[in-house]
Amino acid sequence: MDMQPIEPNKPLSVTLTAEQWNVVMAALNELPHRVARPIVDASMAQLRQQALSSRMSIEDVARVGPDGP
């Protein structure tokens, strides 16, 4: 299957388990800060917004953040 290019600024949604999320965050941790930081910041902002809209606690958001389990 050939991958078709995706518009660079198109927002995408992905649902991951906490375990998968931790793998992604660990991989980002291996990238240079200038590359990883904007991705981490955008991800955390979206998680915070979801927490507000779903009444998830800030503690839950912190657990799935870059320093989570």
The residue fraction in helices comes out at 55-70%
State the total count of DSSP E strands: 0
Residues in β-strands, percent: under 5%
Instruction: Report the principal-axis shape.
Output: globular
The separation of the N and C termini measures: 35 Å
Question: Sheet bearing the most strands, described?
Answer: none
Number of helices: 3
Overall pLDDT confidence? 82
String of helices and strands:
HHH
**Any idea what the radius of gyration is?**
14 Å
Low-confidence stretches: none
Described by its quaternary structure, the protein is: single chain
Q: Give the structural class.
A: mainly alpha
Textual characterization of the structure:
The structure is a single chain. With 69 residues, the protein is mainly alpha-helical. It is 58% helix and 0% strand. The mean pLDDT is 82.
Features:
69 residues, mainly alpha
Could you give a short description of this structure?
Helix content is 58%, strand content 0%. The chain is an all-alpha fold and 69 residues long.
Topology:
Layout: H1 18-29, H2 33-54, H3 58-63
